[in-house]
Amino acid sequence: MAYKPTDVEASVEAAYKEVETGEKPAAPVPAAEAPAAEVTPAAAAEAAPVAAPVATDEEKTAAKPRDGETEENRVARLEAEGRNRDGTFKAGAKTEGKAAGKEPKEDAPLVPPSHWPVEAKAEFAAAPRKVQQAILDREADMTKKAAEWGGKAEEHNRMEKVIGPNRDRWIRDGKTPDVAVAQLLAAEKALQSDPIGGVVYLLKTYAGGKEMGVIQEIARANGYTLTKATNQGSDPPDGAPAPAAVDPTVRRQLDEQAKEIAALRQQNEQRENAVKQTSIEALRSAVHAVETDPKNLYFANLREEIAALVDIAERKGDKRDPKVIVQEAYDNAVYANPQTRTLQEQQNAAAREAAAKKAAADKAVAARQASGSVQGAPGDGAPSARPRGPNGKSIEDEVRRSFDELSSRA
């Protein structure tokens, strides 16, 4: 058998320990019999597949637009509350003290509000993280309150655009805006429920005693000549041409062709609208993805320039992924603007320096770990001392001496 000092030393050292302490060393456990690692509930939950979030009743209610709230304001309100468009909370967002998902990473970059000027965004990026978080919390609170009132204010503005130009005229006629609007609504209701009665109501309310004159003008404009009811069913007046008879079969065919043409026209319009809507949605999704990317800090400040560059790409028939087109437009807009180009170059330089420092630190840690694994236990800079026997000599010396005595006797 070949001589293996390391195996012998280990056996002798174990024997000395048994003699000195009276304890038998534990037998090694075969790999096949090693106890299985305990699976904790947390590990099992983390390994389980994650189901898609289902909106609760509260989240469904939050996703619904409020009175007078536009789609843009609705989306802004949900963003401020940390929700998706269906009302469910985004990963990392919190609801009334309960986490909707995992806590965000501590080193995840914080992004300033998109509407800030470029100088403020640059200062935000250089501020301590606690200051950044405080600013974002206050900004989110202000955005939430603005969204709550934004819908009502926008509804008022839309109504004023309609009422404002007519206010003075209504006042001259002795009407307040609410009375005038009530009359218009009553006319609409009358036309829907009784078209003939509705027209009579409109003429009596707004024609001012000129009802018949208005009716005559409407008939003349459409190629008709009105006669009194006493002539109904009699022969046409002298000199008036008799109406030409139309073959019923021809009339039916013409009507069917007209319906087919109208149906084809409608289908074509629907197809074009669907294609256009799909393209708009894809572009809108690409704009949102690029705008919310933390690295695109100045998107909102360069929105007009980006839109112009995207429009040029579309006019040229660019068929690339809309996100690629929008990202390229952002990059070109940043470097075309002297102010944002300077700030972006400074940020790029700072990012490269931070990456270089991190790489150097990682390399140093790896070198220390490698050095520790060669010399002995991690963190121990000196080699381990050889085990000694009862007479003070090393175990290896004792073993060699024993082998020499056995050899000389033989």
Provide an overview of this structure.
By secondary structure, the chain is mainly α. Among the domains are: 61-93 and 106-167, no CATH class; 175-227, no CATH class; 261-336, no CATH class. The protein has 14 helices and two strands. It is elongated.
Short characterization:
By secondary structure, the protein is mainly α. It has helices spanning 5-21, 41-47, 57-63, 71-80, 118-126, 129-172, 177-193, 195-206, 211-221, 248-291, 303-315, 322-336, 338-375, 395-409; strands at 94-95, 98-99. Among the domains are: 61-93 and 106-167, no CATH class; 175-227, no CATH class; 261-336, no CATH class.
What is the alpha-carbon Rg in Å? 43 Å
| Helix-strand sequence | HHHHEEHHHHHHHHHH
Q: What class do helices, strands and sheet pairing give?
A: mainly alpha
Uncertain spans: 1-9, 28-37, 95-104
pLDDT average, as an integer? 75
Shape: elongated
Strand element count = 2
Helix content percent band = 55-70%
First and last CA, distance: 17 Å
Question: Strand arrangement, largest sheet?
Answer: 1-2
Q: Main sheet, how many strands, which sense, barrel?
A: 2 strands, antiparallel
Instruction: Please report which band the strand proportion falls in: under 5%, 5-15%, 15-25%, 25-35%, 35-45% or over 45%.
Output: under 5%
Number of helices: 14
